[in-house]
Write a structure and sequence with these properties.
With about 900 residues, the chain is an alpha/beta fold. It has four domains: about 80 residues, no CATH class; about 290 residues, Rossmann fold (3-Layer(aba) Sandwich), CATH 3.40.50; about 250 residues, UDP-N-acetylmuramoyl-L-alanine:D-glutamate ligase, CATH 3.40.1190.20; about 200 residues, Aldolase class I (TIM Barrel). It has 32 helices and 28 strands. The strands form four sheets. The protein has a nine-stranded mixed β-sheet with strand order 14-13-12-15-16-17-18-19-20, sandwiched between helices. Strands 4-5-3-1-8-9-11-10 form an eight-stranded parallel β-sheet, with helices on both faces. Helix 14 links the parallel strand 12 and strand 13. The protein is globular, with a radius of gyration of 32 Å. It starts with a helix and ends with a helix. About 50% of the residues are buried. The structure holds the ligand Cc1ncc(COP(=O)(O)OP(=O)(O)O)c(N)n1 and the ligand Cc1nc(C(=O)O)sc1CCOP(=O)(O)O. Ligand 3NM binds next to helix 31. This is thiamine phosphate synthase. InterPro entries: Aldolase_TIM, HAD-like_sf, HAD_sf, HMP/HMP-P_kinase_dom, PM/HMP-P_kinase-1, Ribokinase-like, ThiamineP_synth_sf, ThiamineP_synth_TenI. Its cofactor is Mg(2+). Pathway: Cofactor biosynthesis; thiamine diphosphate biosynthesis; thiamine phosphate from 4-amino-2-methyl-5-diphosphomethylpyrimidine and 4-methyl-5-(2-phosphoethyl)-thiazole: step 1/1. One of its GO terms (cellular component) is cytosol.
């Protein structure tokens, strides 16, 4: 128990049950590498002067000496227990309200007492009613006043503690001081409630019954506690709740309230909490106080640890775990070997940040707490399933009724202006995030009044309101990437830079919006300078168009790709990892004199290599919002884990598809017509058929084969995951003999593994299975369900692939609604009997249809390039991915060649 020493020293009030002199005796087992982050300051109670802190240097020295002895004695011993997955826990302590319950029970408890007291004390029904009304009124007033006082206190503490120091760093003294203030608040409000008399007049059973009816436990928490008890761990509930019996009635027969001092019993969940005082079985209105405040929690937890340490037969390697949700839990959270913050709310997040306490996802907790390092770290989760996996290992998941584990979602915070016309700004950004597989959150910087004719005006959001939005998002939801757009003032730019640093944002995409497409200024004059100085040094990618690059470089003129290269190099000097200078404006100018063969060249520079990203210009007036769209598509890709280069490539592919599909759509009367960001799923009657599958999804198309998986001892989900790691962006489940029920279950498992990674899953032949599991689509052959029927059954949003060996079959497939054609077998294959069409046949099919074609049959790393050069947009492979020892390496090799071919083509 790594932190026992520190927590024993930290004592916050009541005397420690073990004498100071006995402390060295406690270190009877190896916990090599004990770390003392609470440093030298410790506290003891001084009854003569009330509670105050004083340094306990002597205690420190004794403990230090004990630990050194311990380290010497045990450094040669390996831990005796623990398996690769399950943790070896000595004591598991859990807070009650909001940690085991889905809400706070205090108000329920009081309301239950009031209702019961009405019946018992009221006399006539009218008197009963009046009494209840009066007390409810008192309760409402008290609840509001309590919350307001708590909010004010927290705000005050945060500002006090964040301004008190120079460079913020973790300091146990600050934690203690904050807990003292929180404790004063808790004590005051406990007393104030007692003084109102509203807790008077109920029976124990009234309280239990009525309160329990209004309280729900988190799913799975009882299972976790029950298992811990069966394992013989010490399981404790430590709560500031006013009724231990309420807790007991919710936890059932496994729970016990120890008589007198908590004993070390291990066959029950022991509850340490307060209790309503009773006289002749009726509540008196008073509370018997055991755990009244944050300090008490710290003290009682310390005592629990000390009892555990002195317990006979204790495994000296066993660890302590504390799970709690709020500021009142901070001391035990820090004192435990593993402190788990459950369902962290904004207040808790703010406080932990102010105290410089690092918080990581629970899934990142090491097996050995020594690996946490010297500074305190807590772990967060919002799922008892995760806690179960943390304690018992992945093989010991919750029983079947447990909901699916939460799906992690790539998150992008967009800091930008609102476009009332819906075409650009945050409106474009959010649509783009969704279409690129990310979840977009926003901090709105300005409300612009605009439509297709231009910008009529803007109302800038006050800087503190922007800050509040950013904090609200980042303290709770977090962001894998931040994308900035319109930042109207230098002050806002500096704020964003500060927040990016404060929240340690990994990926930042800066779209330096200075002037709108229609020529209106969207930022004050000094914004360019602020972006250069404050934001660009933090940026992963900065995406100026030509006029923006000119403005950022102080009025330079950019007329050619060579000029763009120079600009990219100079902008890189300001510190971004990548500069993407977008060349669309040069084409718009050239367009005035020429109408054919134009291409757009964007210049990407990473400080070493200049890359030209070329594509044919798409002549359309529907370009409003393209800058925002490209930048947020890049941010979405980065949030999903793509490298900056891949992010830019994929984002360009998205914007190209959108631009092509948006030609001709019209909203208002002006020239600034918008894009159809959802063109892959929404068809507004534009000329181009909207694909349900993006081109990039088809580059490496994995088609599964159970026989090969069995041979290599891989489950279908494992095989699919390996293929995804190898770069597969779409997976087809091809099962010819699997019973339907098994197929459905397997498809659900694969979908659960693939979707969070942005990978589509389609079903071979079986439209019914695809519909049952809500797969991304279906692939049908010439002898399967006719393509037109499959399309009708699937609807427009789903992917439909059709096999073709001839031009006629391919053309018909397109007419019938296919999103892509699978053409093959291009080369001989032993996976399936299929006549070979060769590269020639593939080329004919590719030139006959406008939907993408993927090559299938005998495709491997040595021939993938030739298929792409013949015109296909990707390759579908079975054996090269699933009948090999290292599917990842094989997939990557094939994908690299496909990418090369697509670049050349
Ligand atoms: C991407 C892709 N292309 C072609 C096929 C072959 O499908 P089909 O003709 O239906 O033959 P079976 O796969 O059912 O044997 C495919 N599966 N995927
Ligand atoms: C599933 C399938 N369909 C084909 C067709 O010709 O339509 S060839 C084929 C098997 C492809 O397997 P491998 O990548 O191992 O060669």
């Amino acid at each position: 128990m790594k932190r026992l020493v520190s927590s024993a020293l930290r004592g916050t009030g009541a005397p420690c049950p073990l004498s100071v002199a006995s402390l060295p005796r406690l270190f009877s087992g190896p916990s090599v590498g004990v770390c003392f982050w609470p440093r030298r300051s410790a506290v003891v109670n001084d009854p003569a002067h009330g509670r105050h802190w004083r340094t306990a240097g002597q205690l420190w020295k004794q403990c230090r000496c004990a630990v050194e002895l311990e380290v010497r004695h045990f450094s040669d011993h390996q831990p005796a227990s623990g398996t690769a997955h399950a943790r070896n826990i000595g004591v598991l302590v859990v807070d009650f309200d909001n940690t085991l319950t889905t809400g706070d029970t205090t108000v329920n408890l009081i309301a239950a007492v009031i209702a019961a007291a009405g019946q018992r004390l009221g006399g006539t029904p009218e008197e009963e009613d009046r009494l209840v009304q009066e007390r409810m009124q008192v309760l409402r007033g008290a609840a509001e006043a309590y919350q307001a006082a708590l909010d004010a206190l927290i705000e005050d503490l945060i500002s006090q503690f964040s301004t008190a120091k120079g460079k913020p760093e973790f300091d146990m003294g600050t934690v203690r001081n904050m807990c003292v203030k929180l404790s004063e608040h808790d004590r005051y409000w406990c007393q104030r409630t007692i003084d109102t008399g509203i807790l008077k007049g109920a029976r124990r059973e009234d309280v239990e019954e009525a309160a329990v009816r209004g309280v729900t436990l988190w799913e799975g928490c009882l299972d976790v506690l029950g298992r811990a008890r069966q394992k013989g761990w010490g399981v404790r509930v430590l709560s500031q709740n006013w009724s231990a019996h309420l807790i007991k009635s919710m936890l059932g027969d496994d729970a016990a309230i120890p008589e007198g001092k908590a004993d070390a019993a291990r066959d029950a969940i022991l509850i340490t909490s307060n209790e309503l005082a009773y006289e002749s079985e009726i509540t008196t209105g008073d509370v018997t106080r055991v755990v009244e405040c944050a300090d008490d929690k710290g003290q009682v937890f310390d005592n629990m640890l000390l009892e555990e340490m002195s317990r006979e037969g204790r495994d000296p390697h066993s660890l302590s775990v504390y799970i709690g949700d709020g500021p009142g839990d901070i001391l035990p959270l820090l004192a435990a070997d593993f402190g788990i913050v459950f369902n962290k709310n904004k207040t808790m997040g703010d406080i932990l940040r102010t105290l410089c306490i690092e918080i990581k996802p629970l899934t990142e907790a090491p097996m050995d707490p020594k690996l946490q390092g010297d500074m305190p770290v807590l772990y967060e989760t919002a799922s008892w399933h995760d806690i179960s996996v943390f304690l018992y290992g992945p093989g010991m998941n919750m029983p079947a009724q447990e909901p699916d584990p939460p799906i992690s979602v790539p998150r992008v915070l967009i800091v930008a202006g609102s476009d009332s016309g819906g075409g650009a700004g945050i409106q474009a950004d959010i649509k783009t995030c969704l279409m690129n597989g990310a979840f977009g959150c926003v901090a709105v910087t300005s409300l612009t009044f605009q439509n297709t004719q231009g910008i009529e005006g803007a109302h800038n959001v006050p800087t503190d309101a922007i800050e509040a939005q950013i904090d609200a998002v980042l303290s709770d939801i977090g962001a894998n990437a931040v994308k900035t757009g319109m930042l109207p003032t230098a002050e806002v730019v500096e704020l964003v830079a500060r927040k990016v640093a404060e929240y340690k944002i990994e990926s930042l995409v800066v779209d330096p919006v200075l002037v709108s497409t229609s020529g209106q200024s969207l930022a004050e004059n000094d914004v360019g300078g602020a972006i250069r100085e404050a934001l660009m040094p933090l940026a992963t990618v900065v995406t100026p168009n030509v006029p923006e690059a000119e403005a950022l470089l102080g009025g330079r003129t950019i007329r050619s790709v060579d000029d763009m290269e120079v600009a990219a190099r100079e902008l890189h000097e300001f510190g971004p990892k990548y500069v993407l200078v977008k060349g669309g404006h040069l084409v718009s100018n050239a367009q005035k004199s020429s109408h054919s063969g134009l291409e757009v060249v964007d210049v990407l520079y990473d400080g070493n290599t200049i890359l030209h990203l070329r594509q044919p210009a798409i002549m359309t007036g529907n370009t409003h919002g393209t800058g925002c769209t490209l930048a947020s598509a890049i941010a979405s890709e980065l949030a999903k884990g793509a490298s900056p280069c891949t992010a830019v490539e994929n984002a360009k592919e998205y914007i190209t598809d959108v631009l092509k599909s948006s030609k001709g759509i019209r909203t208002g009367r002006g020239a600034q017509q918008p894009l159809n960001h959802g063109s892959a799923i929404v068809d507004w009657g534009a000329q181009v058929r909207k694909p349900s599958v993006q081109l990039r999804d088809l580059r490496l198309y994995a088609v599964t084969d159970s026989r090969m998986n069995r041979k290599r001892n891989r489950s279908m989900t494992e095989a699919a995951s390996l293929a995804i790691s190898g770069g597969a962006s779409i997976i087809q489940l091809r099962e010819k003999a699997m019973p339907t029920q098994e197929f459905v279950t397997m498809a659900r498992d694969v979908l659960a593994a693939a979707r969070p990674r942005g990978v589509k899953v389609v079903i071979n032949d079986r439209v019914d299975v695809a519909l049952a599991v809500d797969a991304d689509g279906v692939h049908v052959g010439q002898e399967d369900m006719p393509a037109a029927d499959a399309r009708r059954l699937l609807g427009k949003g789903k992917v439909l692939g059709v096999s073709a060996k001839t031009v006629e079959q391919a053309v018909k497939a397109e007419e019938d609604g296919a999103d892509y054609v699978g053409a093959g077998a291009v080369f001989p294959t032993s996976t399936k009997e299929s006549s070979v069409i060769g590269l020639e046949g593939l080329r004919d099919i590719c030139s006959a249809v406008s939907i993408p074609v993927v090559a299938i049959g005998g495709v491997a790393a040595d021939n993938a390039l030739s298929t792409v050069l013949a015109g296909c947009k990707g390759v579908a492979v079975v054996s090269s991915l699933f009948d090999v020892g290292d599917p990842q390496a094989s997939g990557r090799a094939i994908l690299a060649l496909v990418n090369l071919g697509l670049e050349k083509g």
